[in-house]
């Protein structure tokens, strides 16, 4: 019987009696069946307690001196899964255990609330989209359509950004989060293809979804998305959505999923693209009948959100945006959370009933499986529906039509997209960085690069994150020196431990989602032009970057550091719309900027040389949300050290001359600081100084008062 | 909505205080003290103005509860009473007598004490009457059609007011000497003083409704005669046939149906003289039946000076809190402490009465056994009998249907298998132009259902007479409260 239908059986191998004893008690408390325990793996096997076990929890280093890989292999041979449990950070042993086949690692130092979610979303705000986030996912969904959210991009009002939320989102407590309406790195289908490419290299095992809203013309979009190598296309209907939406978004965005799904299915079939993508559908799906109709119209996967939430206690109060959810569902407020009564097994029950209903419909239709039903829209009988006087005269046959397709063509996915992963530049890097990845030893790699080499460093970063999780490796452990022109998305999602130094120039999306790595770009040493007067990198540098550093000796394009959540970056000039929706990090701009700087900037700080006030976003300045200050002593110190690093990394002539005259030059810098961010930081700093926990309730109340949350 | 966080700031219910027991049992006036407007306002702030207001559904009238809660919070009494009157003809009755299914389905009640909706309702209407905001709404034009409403309880009165306002000429017939039906004579003053009825009747008379008290349809005028004289007839005579308990000793003196005791008691309080009134003073009283009628008998017996009152209920004591079998938003059966229970008397559960014991034709005691459940039936357990002394026994065992057979013999109106007047989806009986609303068609039920049925039946009658109607239809004849 599969584990879902019976108690899960677990055993433990640990040399401490107290831990074995505590583990047994924990099993009882959590409803697991305790199979046995031993101080060594061979004991467990000899006692035959390992038989029938689903999981054995194995301490990384045992007193008998056995080697971890041998232990893991022995347990695997006994047909059980292994969960490695370790107090120490013995990286190479952990890596070895995982490579030998252990299914998971639990560090004794890990906090209880680091959860694993299988399906992750990449929305326009890119909040929290780091290498860790992407690496630990089975499905990654790029959300193109976002009609049913407050604000036209998403918005989390300041009173809902609790300290633990801010930590997950890499932002500041008490400061509201705004997502820009479009993805700032997607302005065409080719850009979407680029993002799919980048995300796929950040996690080759995950399926990449693209979420589209059901609308007239979705067929063309779906075909384009399929050509752009998405693995799953999600058609999202106009129903459902969060209660926090404004009514006009709720009621007037999108069309019913049936229409969008039918159009997408027909277009994909017509273009011979249907067999390599999965089509998913959602939008207030509630019953087995919905599932079957969706399947007949061509969907293979079905998304449910409102219905399971109602199972967990949601009563459709529609006050989600006010943070007063009385049943504790749409809130993080601790008082309200204590009123939450949802239970996981209720949700499981709901889906079991749903599945039962689906089976009944399939049987009535004469199908033995859901797969057989997919795409057979000819089985939908609409006569009774259109007999109603209101529907009289409606011809629904275009919705139910199947286009002429060659015999044997599949109406559903039967193969996979060819992502051409094997052609990626990073395979070379991964091979050359073996010593670092396996043994944490520093390596230096030198290679040429051309502009067809896209997302360089991303796949390597994924390998690093798989082994070393959020902590990564010490800075520049993998020191990569490249010469030439880099393609798009240079250094995307690169984690801490990788340094990419490029001599030459690069294209758009440098440092997209940077997750702790460092990027340095400088013109070729033989070049004769003035670096600070020429373009070194393209548009949308550092989009959604969360940590790390970038030193760019030259001018960059538009939307520099849009949605920056914590990266430190130096550039010598930039285009329009720099620092848009920034929530954290430090930006240093040593030359002229374009217009509309700092639109929607709600966190972080920027030091801009000779900033023109009329280049700053007018609304933010007028509303007092952005302050333009002189640099104080702390700011000056920070600027100076950044300039020094910029010189060290890139040999910047501009920065060098600024340092030589620092006392005068510092007066030409303006500090761009968001007001709410400054206040929140001040409150938290004061609390820490007085020995009060900045995440505590009293400090939170102070923060809310100041930001009017 | 005024204050989204109101429910987090004010976490406890506060209702009007009841006067001290020792003081209130000396008179027949309402047990509640005057309400504090500031408290009501704060309590109204607890309403969360839900996106899906379950209170609307819990209330058969479909009262727009979050709206008048908000208006109360804002101190806009005139708008509040307009909102309230839009769905409820008689908030002064329901605000005192309704068991509040709205509060049982209040969303806040899922995990916190429910909003005090009933208190807010009664304070709105009391303020409106005090400040003379309740005006008659006579129709601008008359239709020239006539309707006879038989029975002046809440169902009949609601229908009468709706039909009068729609322009018809309505005459309400009542066999008792005064208008009000159960409201006036079934319910004791300490639950609702009768001047509230008189005030409302004054408004109805000013609107043009005619009242004919002391006329018993079926004997003074036959049903067919009535039908021939009026363009439509509404049967709203209630479910007055009491449930009997035919056990040995039933014929002894001193064993009475509850209404035979209550009605005269209320008449006397109203100043009407009654011959041979059944009195409880100086007696040991036993009441069979633990419902509202039983509680009314208890309060009345207490005030009449009974030396003991024991209430016997055949079933288990209901739980104090909502049980899992009656989840939100259903209306649970809970152990209630009504005002009468606070004053005097004992309550016994699982008590099956097996015999009335007497001497010389007068009851002296009640023999009671423990109830046991056998195959789902409640049966007395042999060998557990005890005798409770009783000089007066009141049977408050519920009502089983319409009394008498005049209506079925004098017209083609038929009864259904439960003993209620049979009706179809538009409230009509099988006699053309004869409709039924309230307990007469539904069986014994709540005041709020009666008013809702009266309003809905009025809409059907209006449509019958005019071809179409604009009157609201809050319920359908086969609507039932939500249950598992």
Largest sheet of chain B: 5 strands, parallel
Strand numbers in spatial order across the main sheet of chain B: 3-2-1-4-16
**Largest contact between chains:** A-B, 13 and 14 residues
Number of strands of chain A: 23
The percentage helix of chain B is 25-40%
Give the total of beta strands of chain B: 16
Task: Report the helical percentage of chain A.
Answer: 25-40%
Give start-end ranges of low-pLDDT stretches of chain B. Answer: none
Kindly report how far apart the N and C termini of chain A lie. 52 Å
| Global mean pLDDT of chain A | 88
What is the radius of gyration of chain B?
A: 23 Å
Q: Largest sheet of chain A, order of strands side by side?
A: 14-15-16-17-18-19-20-21-23-22
Find the structural class of chain B using helix and strand composition: alpha/beta
> What portion of residues of chain B belong to β-strands?
15-25%
Low-confidence stretches of chain A: 111-115
Mean pLDDT of chain B: 94
The end-to-end span of chain B amounts to 32 Å
What fraction of the residues of chain A are assigned to beta strands by DSSP? 15-25%
Globally, the shape of chain A reads globular
Q: Outline of chain B, from the CA principal axes?
A: globular
Overall structural class of chain A, as computed from helix and strand content, comes to: alpha/beta
């Amino acid at each position: 019987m599969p584990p879902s239908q019976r108690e899960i059986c677990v055993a433990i191998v640990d040399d401490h009696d107290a831990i074995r004893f505590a583990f047994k008690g924990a099993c009882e408390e959590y409803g697991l069946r305790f199979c046995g325990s031993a101080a060594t793996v061979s004991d467990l096997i000899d006692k035959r307690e390992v038989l029938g076990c689903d999981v054995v929890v194995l301490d990384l280093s045992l007193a008998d001196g056995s080697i971890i890989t041998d232990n893991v292999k022995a347990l695997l041979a006994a047909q059980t899964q292994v969960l490695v449990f370790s107090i120490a950070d013995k990286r190479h042993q952990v890596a070895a255990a995982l490579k030998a086949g252990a299914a998971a690692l639990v560090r004794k130092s890990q906090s209880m609330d680091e959860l694993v979610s299988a399906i992750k979303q990449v929305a326009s705000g890119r909040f929290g989209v780091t290498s860790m986030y992407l690496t630990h996912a089975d499905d990654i969904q790029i959300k193109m359509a976002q009609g049913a959210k407050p604000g036209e991009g998403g918005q989390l009002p300041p009173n809902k950004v609790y300290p633990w939320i801010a930590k997950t989102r890499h932002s500041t407590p008490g400061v509201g989060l705004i997502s820009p309406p479009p993805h700032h790195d997607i302005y065409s289908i080719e850009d979407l293809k680029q993002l799919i490419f980048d995300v796929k290299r950040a996690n080759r095992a995950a399926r990449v979804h693209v979420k589209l809203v059901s609308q007239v013309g979705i067929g063309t979009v779906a075909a384009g998305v399929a050509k752009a190598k998405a693995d799953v296309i999600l058609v999202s209907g106009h129903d459902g959505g969060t209660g926090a939406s404004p009514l006009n978004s709720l009621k007037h965005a999108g069309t019913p999923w049936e229409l969008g799904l039918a159009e997408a299915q027909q277009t994909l079939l017509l273009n011979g693209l249907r067999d390599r993508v999965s089509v998913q559908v959602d939008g207030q799906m509630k019953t087995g009948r919905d599932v079957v109709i969706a399947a007949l119209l061509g969907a293979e996967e079905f998304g449910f959100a409102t219905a399971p939430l109602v199972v967990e206690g949601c009563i459709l109060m529609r006050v989600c945006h006010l943070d007063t959810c009385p049943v504790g569902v749409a809130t993080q407020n601790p008082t309200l959370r204590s009123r939450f009564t949802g239970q996981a097994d209720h949700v499981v029950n709901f889906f079991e009933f749903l599945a039962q209903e689906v089976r009944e419909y399939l049987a009535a239709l004469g199908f033995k499986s859901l797969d057989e039903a997919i795409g057979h829209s000819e089985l939908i009988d609409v006569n009774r529906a259109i007999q109603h006087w209101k529907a009289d005269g409606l011809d629904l046959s275009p919705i139910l039509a199947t286009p002429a397709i060659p015999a044997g063509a599949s109406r559903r996915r039967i193969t996979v997209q060819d992502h051409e992963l094997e052609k990626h530049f990073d395979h070379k890097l991964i091979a050359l960085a073996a010593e670092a990845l396996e043994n944490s030893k520093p390596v230096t790699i030198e290679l040429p690069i051309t502009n067809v080499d896209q997302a360089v460093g991303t796949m390597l970063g994924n390998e690093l994150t798989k082994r070393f999780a959020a902590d990564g490796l010490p800075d520049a452990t993998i020191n990569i020196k490249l010469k030439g022109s880099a393609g798009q998305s240079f250094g995307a999602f690169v984690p801490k431990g990788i340094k990419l130094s490029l001599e030459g120039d690069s294209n758009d999306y440098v440092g997209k989602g940077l997750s702790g790595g460092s990027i340095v770009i400088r013109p070729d040493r033989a070049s004769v032009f003035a670096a600070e007067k020429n373009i070194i990198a393209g548009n949308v540098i550092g989009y959604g970057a969360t940590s790390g550093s970038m030193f760019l000796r030259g001018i960059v394009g538009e939307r520099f550091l849009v949605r920056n959540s914590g990266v430190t970056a130096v550039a010598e000039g930039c285009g329009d719309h720099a620092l848009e929706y920034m929530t954290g990090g430090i930006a240093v701009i040593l030359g002229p900027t374009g217009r509309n700087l700092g639109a929607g900037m709600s966190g972080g700080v920027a030091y801009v040389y000779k900033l023109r006030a009329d280049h700053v976003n007018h609304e933010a300045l007028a509303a007092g949300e952005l302050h333009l200050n002189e640099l104080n002593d702390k700011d000056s110190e920070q600027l100076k050290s950044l300039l020094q690093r910029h010189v060290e990394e890139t040999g910047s002539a501009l920065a060098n001359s600024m340092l030589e005259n620092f006392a005068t030059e510092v007066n030409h810098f303006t500090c761009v600081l968001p007001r709410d961010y400054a206040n929140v930081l001040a409150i938290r700093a004061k609390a820490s100084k007085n020995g009060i926990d900045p995440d505590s309730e009293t400090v939170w109340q102070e923060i809310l008062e100041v930001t009017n949350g | 909505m005024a204050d989204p966080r109101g429910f987090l700031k004010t976490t406890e219910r506060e209702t009007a205080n009841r006067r001290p027991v020792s003081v209130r049992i000396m008179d027949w006036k309402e047990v509640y003290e005057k309400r504090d407007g500031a408290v009501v306002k704060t309590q109204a702030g607890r309403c969360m103005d839900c996106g899906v207001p379950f209170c609307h559904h819990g209330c058969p009238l479909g009262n727009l509860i979050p709206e008048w809660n908000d208006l109360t919070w804002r101190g806009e009494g005139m708008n509040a009473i307009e909102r309230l009157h839009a769905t409820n003809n008689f908030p002064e009755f329901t605000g005192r007598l309704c068991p509040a299914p709205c509060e049982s389905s209040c969303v806040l009640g899922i995990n916190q004490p429910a909003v005090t909706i009933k208190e807010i309702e009664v304070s709105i209407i009391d303020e409106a009457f005090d400040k003379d905001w309740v005006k008659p709404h006579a129709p601008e034009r008359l239709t020239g059609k006539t309707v006879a409403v038989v029975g002046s309880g809440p169902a009949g009165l609601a229908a009468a007011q709706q039909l009068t306002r729609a322009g018809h000429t309505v005459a309400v017939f009542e066999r008792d000497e005064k208008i009000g039906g159960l409201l006036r004579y079934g319910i004791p003053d300490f639950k609702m003083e009768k001047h509230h009825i008189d005030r409302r009747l004054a408004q109805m008379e000013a609107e043009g409704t005619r009242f004919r008290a002391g006329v018993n349809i079926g004997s003074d005028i036959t049903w067919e005669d009535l039908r021939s004289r009026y363009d439509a007839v509404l049967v709203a005579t209630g479910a007055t046939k009491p449930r009997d308990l035919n056990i040995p000793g039933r014929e002894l003196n001193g064993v009475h149906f509850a209404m035979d005791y209550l009605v005269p008691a209320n008449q006397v309080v109203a100043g009407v003289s009654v011959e041979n009134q059944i009195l409880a003073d100086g007696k040991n009283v036993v009441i069979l039946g633990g419902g509202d009628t039983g509680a009314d008998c208890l309060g009345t017996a207490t005030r009449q000076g009974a030396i003991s009152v024991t209430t016997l209920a055949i079933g288990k004591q209901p739980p104090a809190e909502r049980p899992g079998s009656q989840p939100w938003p259903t209306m649970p059966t809970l152990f209630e402490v009504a005002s009468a229970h606070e004053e005097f008397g004992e309550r016994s559960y699982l008590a099956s009465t097996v015999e009335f014991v007497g001497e010389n034709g007068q009851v002296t005691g009640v023999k009671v056994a423990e109830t046991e459940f056998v195959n789902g039936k409640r049966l007395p357990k042999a060998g557990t009998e005890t005798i409770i002394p009783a000089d007066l026994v009141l049977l408050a065992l519920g009502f089983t249907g319409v009394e008498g057979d005049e209506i079925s013999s004098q017209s083609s109106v038929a009864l259904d298998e439960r003993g209620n007047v049979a009706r179809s989806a538009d409230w009509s009986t099988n006699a053309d132009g004869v409709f039924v609303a309230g307990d007469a068609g539904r069986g014994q039920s709540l005041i709020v259902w009666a008013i809702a049925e009266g309003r809905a039946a009025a809409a059907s009658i209006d449509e019958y007479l005019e071809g179409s109607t604009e009157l609201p239809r809050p319920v359908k004849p086969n609507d039932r409260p939500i249950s598992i």
